[in-house]
Amino acid sequence: MPFKTTIGLEVHAELSTRTKMFCACKNDPDERRPNINICPVCLAHPGTLPVPNREAVRHVLRIGAAVGGTLADFSEFDRKSYFYPDMPKGYQISQYEYPLVSGGILAGVALTRIHLEEDTARSSHGEGKSLVDFNRAGIPLMELVTEPVIHDAQTAGKFARELQLLLRTLEAGNANLEKGEMRIEANISVSDTEGVFGTKVEVKNINSFRAVERAIAYEVERQIALIEKGESVVQATRGWDDVKMETFHQRVKEGSADYRYFPEPDIPKLSLREIPEFAPEILQADLPELPQARRARYAEAYSLKLEDIAYISASLERSRFFDAVTHVLNHDAVLIMQAANYFTSDLAGIFTKNGEETYEKVSAESFAELMHMIAREELSSRGAKEVLALLVQKGGSPEALAKEHGFLQVHDTEALRAAVLSVIETQQKAVGEYRSGKDASLQFLVGMAMRETKGAGNPGKLRELLIEELGRE
Q: Cα separation of 178 and 112, whole Å?
């Protein structure tokens, strides 16, 4: 039988709160000075007591409501024992038996649980020494575990991207993988026996969505190769090397028994049903428009192309900008379809060329006005692109920029006729080809006339004048 791949994901995401999970230290992932946001609690000094962060609990419950999970009436924190230099207590405060959220579904993938814990410190190694920065120790950390229902790398990558978008939409976290604010681990097994799971291997150190897909694809092929040779897959934790594009052995995989979980004695049990703001109906009513609903709205209200919807919805910043544009355009479906085209092709192309995506200078109002100018035929397609590039670069009024740089479309017949006559005089080869029946040459001549007018000529009018002057119908 063919090999069957089974994948489950474990995702850790730092939550956006003012303070850390169990103390009053500042939660600032951008702090570069080491060991600034620390106190006796997050350094685990004897006699200190942890106090749970209410906002962190609320974040996880809202995430649970967004994915349709079951929100706990009762929960508690547990001690998860393991000994690393970046874990000052010698254990981590986490959740085991009673997570805040059970079940749910996201991007078509069933979830097992979502729970809350504290992050570790950050270790760095080099020049023969190891350093530990405790600024990150104790930052609220959400852990989400999926069911083992993913069967290919692409589905895993799609799920991870959708989770990042959801966290940003809920303003629960920034979830930047490159900053370590969201970390993805994949549990992968391959089996050649119907109804039997293969040996599970966990892959860590995955720091981009593309790396998620590559790491899973590599590990699947590695396990298949072992099975085909009659060798055994060893249950272990492996890392991902983004340079060599391969996984590597780190350690033998621990089981839950190795962590010696037991209820955290220093934190009272959580009776969530007694807190009004944590009621499921309150949390559900407070949710913003979720990514899936936003995509459905774009399709139903504006009939946008699927690829345009995917691009706009892939970023909260893009969606907010586009929604602001639709508001300025008074939800005119025709203008909005035009706006989507310029947004996903021309504006996206400018961002790619510039190496950054920023809406700091181009406003929704100026972008919408540009759409009106195009619709009124005040700008040609080329002129519109030039004005859009200037808007991104310096901002301002599209009409003023078009006037300043001579991009306003010329409709004056005699001015356009002069350009047409100039092109006819200088492009005799194309003129001869057109007169001998090669219709494609006419489009070339229109393009040359557009160049003659620096993109400001009305292409339809130029075409009419060329036909008139060249004497063919």
A: 26
Closest CA to 190 of 239, 158, 235: 235
| Both structure tokens of 109 | 């993938």
Tell how far CA 276 is from the center of its chain: 33
Q: Residue 258 corresponds to which tokens in the numbers above?
A: 């190795």
User: DSSP code of 278?
Assistant: G
Instruction: State which fold the 413-470 domain adopts.
Output: Arc Repressor Mutant, subunit A (1.10.10)
pLDDT tens for each residue of 135-178: 999 999 999 999 999 999 999 999 999 999 999 999 999 999 99
Of 424, 427, 426, the closest CA to residue 471 belongs to: 424
Cβ pair 158, 107 in contact under 8 A: yes
Q: What percent of the chain has pLDDT over 90?
A: 76
pLDDT digits (tens, 9 = 90+) for 428-464: 887 877 787 777 787 888 788 877 776 677 777 777 7
Q: Could you tell me the residue ranges of all domains in the chain? A: 4-283, 291-404, 413-470
Max CA-CA distance within the chain? 97
- Please report, as a single letter, which amino acid is at residue 330: N
H runs (alpha helix) in 152-208: 153-169
Residue type, 86: D
Distance CA 40, CA 42 (A): 6
